Amino acid sequence: MLQILIPILVDALANAALIFFVAVGLTLVFSVLRILNVAHGSFYSIGAYAAASLGLWIIGSGLPAWLTFPSLLVSAALVAGIFGPAIERTIVRWTYGKSEAVQILVTFGLFLILEDLQRIVFGVNSLYEDTPMGLLGSVTFGGVVYLNYQLLLIGLAILTIVGLKFLIGHTRLGRLIAAVVADREMSQAMGINTDRVFMIAFTLGIFLAALGGALATPTSGVTPGLGADTMVLAFAVAAIGGLGRIEGAAVAALIVAVARVLAIYYLPALDAVAPYIVMLVVLLIRPYGLFGSVAARRI
Amino acid sequence: MQKLLLITVALVAVCAAGISTPWLQFALTLAIAKGFAALGVAVLLRAGLISIGHAMFFAIGAYSVAFLGRDLGLSDFVGLLVGATFISALSGVIIGAFMVRYRAIFFAMLNLAVSMVLFSLLSKLYSYTGGTDGMRVASPTFFGIAAAEQTIDLILFLTTVLLIPAVGLIVNAYLKSPLGHSLSAVHTNEVRLAYLSVPVGGILMVAYTLSAALAGLGGAIAALAIGHVLPEMAYWTESGHLILVAVLGGVGGVAGPFIGSTFLELTHTVAAGITDSWSMIVGIALLVVIFFLPNGLFGLFNPKRKERAI
User: For testing the chain B interface, which of A112, A117, A273, A280 should be mutated: the one with the most B CBs within 10 Å?
Assistant: First the structure.
């Protein structure tokens, strides 16, 4: 029994780690900016493309192979640095305080633009770059082989949760973010530069999405259409956890990943449906998600 | 009167364009099919409800045609259209019963979830739906008469064009009725309606069912025109495109979504010869319309209207 259970669990955890990065980015952007960013998945795939291209370049130009590890991080940071401030300043800023319909549409327009941009920059071919996974190798434990890279992903996800919690709870920037989330107008009145907080939060959200994409490349490569698929998955996870909840996103990622892995093991036909069925069930019972607080509904 | 003339001229122009140029005929049929679905989305937008999952009803309509043809042997043109619309409306009642309890982002996301469940099922249940290959749709017959392919396409095109005023009048009557007007009231202040003992749930239920039926009708037309149905019809980006068409055209009137979809389809046809960055053009156009033309393209023709697209 344990022979099956532990590999399933490790699979699920590694899977959850990857979804978690994107979902927590989405949830962060939502809680600070109050915007549901439909283009969020695009940053995942841009991050994936950037990481794969950078990795292939490193290998191709004969640089030491271990450089592919920092390159994952660097590419995510690059994507966030290039797109985050620019998009927040030029487009997203105009939708603050507007209706959800406007926000969803504007970010959908952004999604369309980014999808084509990727196609133009990176082409339509799939990229595979799995040096980091090969370098780490695997361990055998109790007769089962585990990929070290999967364990690394799990570790990084835990580190991210702790890091985000620390950032929000114990740093000046985090307190500013928390203040803006709690009461935007009041924090503005207290002299907080909300524009700057919005920009930082948006960029951080994009960084997390791009990091998820970059970390996913060694295991699954990157193909066109990845952004759209990831978007719904991140949506599902963020919604299950309750939009705006960091720990919610982590638990939801785990639930979705377990559901998915179980489906793959027992009902392969339904693996793609599993996340959405979980989302549907959770939202029908608790529309604000597992960890969301009940906001005052208008009626 | 002037308006009536304008509509007639526009419809006759579309008919003439379609009949004289065969490749345009297909593009226009498809554009109008999407226009029906976008009209459904526009009805909900009036109540401030944005659904990122309405492509599911488009897909339900399309797959209904395929299933009715394959499993029930129904091949009659009118029967297929009516049947598919009815099945979509029925799905709208069932799904809507859950949806109308939610607002804003939750409404959007639940619709997204249901549509993605449908998409995954359509692409995974290979033995029933043909999986990602989709299903072929047999050519329809007209009151028992089988016709040549070109004749079928022509009849389908003309019927589709004629359906615009027919369906448009019904939807227009609905929107002008107290039932339709209360949609914008839901948008402005739902609590007030509750105090006036207006049943908000019931109002939204009617709107949701109507919008599902419209999307289903569009899907059925598309299925007949293409002759093939695919799971991608239910994918969330399709839902996004439907909202886009509705907003691009403007939701101020029934004509808006049709103007939007025809404009988009024609531009697509022209642009396809010049560039393949179509999504980017559409995305930019969408941003421009949202930021600078909040009434949509329809607002350009009808400056008096104050109803905003979004």
Answer: A112
Cβ(A224)–Cβ(A124) below 8 Å: yes
- Domain B2-301 sits in CATH 1.10.490: no
Determine, yes or no, domain membership for A298: no
- Its pTM stands at 0.85
Closest partner CB to B280 (pick from A112, A243, A298): A112
Q: Residue A91 and residue A56: Cα distance in Å, rounded? A: 33
Which tens digits make up the pLDDT trace of B83-128?
A: 999 999 999 999 998 888 877 778 888 888 889 888 888 888 777 8
- ipTM of the prediction greater than 0.95, yes or no: no
Q: Which residue of B has its CA nearest to A119?
A: B277
Answer whether A280 sits within 8 Å of B110, measured CB to CB.
yes
pLDDT digits (tens, 9 = 90+) for B251-302: 777 888 888 888 888 887 777 777 777 788 888 888 888 788 766 666 555 5
The domain spans of chain B are 2-301
Tens digit of each residue's pLDDT (9 = 90 or more) over B135-174:
888 777 777 777 777 777 888 888 888 888 888 888 888 8
Instruction: For residue B275, count CB atoms less than 10 angstroms from its CB and return exposed for 0-12, middle for 13-18, buried for 19 or more.
Output: exposed
Q: Do B279 and A236 lie within an 8 Å CB cutoff?
A: no
Q: Is residue A265 part of a domain?
A: no
Q: Which domain holds residue A138?
A: 24-226
A200: in domain: yes
Cα–Cα distance for residue pair A51/A132, rounded to 1 Å = 11
- Cβ–Cβ gap A239/B113 under 8 Å: yes
Contact A232 B125 (CB under 8 A): no
The total of structural domains in chain A comes to: 1
Flag whether A38 is in a domain.
yes
Model pLDDT, residue B298: 62
Inter-residue contact B55 to B238 (CB < 8 Å): yes
